[in-house]
Amino acid sequence: MSTFFKSIGLSKVKLPSKKWLAFYTVSSFALSGVIYDKQQQKSIRQNYIDQVKDISNEKLEINQLPRKIKVFIAPPPSDYLETSLKFWSRYVKPILYYSGLDYEIIVENQQGVIRSYVANEMRNLRKSILDLPLKNLEEEQAQLKEGNEIIKKPEPVERLDMRKYMGIFYKMELPDEIKSEDCVKNEPELTGGVICLGRGAFKEYITGLHEGLLGPLDMPKEVIDKAREISKIENDKSKDTTLQTSTEMVKDITNEEKTNETMMDIPKEETFIETIQDSNTLVKNETTELPSGDASAGANEDASANEDASANEDASANEDARANDKEICLPSFLPEKSYNEISLPIELNNFQTTLKDRETGLPILIHQPIVMIPIPNLIGFLNIPKRIYRFYNKRYMCDSICGDVTHLVKQDTIRRFEKGDLQLGLEEELDWPSRWVQKGQDRNSEWVNELIGDKRVYEQLKVINEKRE
Amino acid sequence: MSFLGFGASQPQLTSEQKISAAETELDLVTDMFNRLVNNCHQKCIDRSNYSAGDLNKNESACLDRCVAKYFETNVKVGENMQKMGQNFSAGGRF
């Protein structure tokens, strides 16, 4: 080397020793790989954002709400929710934000929360068609406890509606009823949208739809009794021994809410992600008493009025114990999943007309197109070479995820759901740790069961992902 | 704040007191509304983009979120104040 330098006239230059050269080479390879990958991700993301940005500059009337997308996020097995939320905030959220769409996130820390939510929505829709009283998740959960505690709804107090006199509305009329801009669209597949982050979320979403549409409207007695039995066993056992957890006794049931072990197998203090509340629970939180008495009560009313129009975003991340209490996981109303024997309920009218939500006038979840985004997440010591390879090639994953979300935003690749689409995201299951899967099969938990769909339900769904062969 | 702890129900107010209570409530709500409008306008509406008079979707969504955050902040601060107030009154009695 030094003779080379002499020949070109730089005789004074001295290279570092061979070992240092080796070190510098290896480290610069590693570093440049990371930097290149991150730069590419940025430019890919910016590319998709630019495709979508024009939508956000469109006009929105004062009395209109933007198109709302529901995002269901489930943590990968044996891992924290934060891993999934990283995918959400890095790849999905920027595109939704720059397109000006509204989104609502529904998170879960245990198996079954998303299913309960979706099934409850479907059941409430059927009840509203039949003019029966609706029930929210807390009321359903109260049924499971011994001695039916009836939750008393706070009686609405007659108050002067200040909104009529605020600001310019002192002289002007309040705007007409605030409706979503999606209400005027003719085709239901162009309204709203659903994003399922994770194979578990997708499975729960589909089973929730089936349970809500084909299952009974009220919690069947066998399910209530079983759940009460389990909680009794749990209480007795916890009084006897402190070491034995209830998980050893819990077998052959489909609900995971009674087990102390969450699917992540981590102690509860460490699940620190706040669940997202939809507008119902947020309004309930605001009816608490505040020290400034009447004035704040007026503020509460304004808040509850504004909640109808506000986007629900996950705020704080530091409510550990409360987060687990807020998640409501109901046992399945249809534990056997015998969809073939059940006939389609009359009120659904064989889906001849698009079913619309009573309050908002939007077609319900089943008509909205679905995007399934798999979350590849390998864990384990022996997987480290694979994980290094994936770490250096994140840009391809970024490309596919951002591409799918952009298709959802632009609504250009909507197609009917087919039987093969039940396997969407199956490659994610290859990443699941085998021990976790084994445990799940012993406990007969939801995620490891095969996803069964009933044709009458899934032929109504629409998908955005590309076809699987 | 402190006198409400004694009575079992709301203290009986005369009509004058009711009127003044309603007035203060109106003042407070109006004040909060004005602050909210100023705050959210400052944060959400870009000073350089006055090419159209209507709000676009981005700004609309931003305003919705601003209002939601404002109220949530209000509620949280109120709850904390209430806790502080209880501590004060408990400390005062000893």
Automatic annotation (TrEMBL), chain A:
Residues 287-323 are annotated as: Disordered. The keyword Nucleotide-binding does not apply. InterPro entries: Mt_import_IM_translocase_Tim54. It is a single-pass membrane protein. It comes from the Eukaryota. It is found in: Mitochondrion inner membrane. Keywords: Membrane, Mitochondrion, Mitochondrion inner membrane, Protein transport, Translocation, Transmembrane, Transmembrane helix, Transport. Signal peptide: none annotated. Pfam families: Tim54. GO terms for biological process: protein insertion into mitochondrial inner membrane. GO terms for molecular function: protein transmembrane transporter activity. GO terms for cellular component: TIM22 mitochondrial import inner membrane insertion complex. Its main location: mitochondrion. The keyword Protein biosynthesis does not apply. Belongs to the TIM54 family. This is Mitochondrial import inner membrane translocase subunit TIM54. It comes from Henningerozyma blattae (strain ATCC 34711 / CBS 6284 / DSM 70876 / NBRC 10599 / NRRL Y-10934 / UCD 77-7). The gene is TBLA0D05180.
Automatic annotation (TrEMBL), chain B:
Residues 20-83 form the Tim10-like domain. Pfam families: zf-Tim10_DDP (PF02953). InterPro entries: Tim10-like, Tim10-like_dom_sf. Signal peptide: none annotated. Gene3D superfamilies: Mitochondrial import inner membrane translocase subunit tim13 like domains. GO terms for cellular component: mitochondrial intermembrane space chaperone complex; TIM22 mitochondrial import inner membrane insertion complex. One of its GO terms (molecular function) is protein transporter activity. Belongs to the small Tim family. Heterohexamer. This is Mitochondrial import inner membrane translocase subunit.
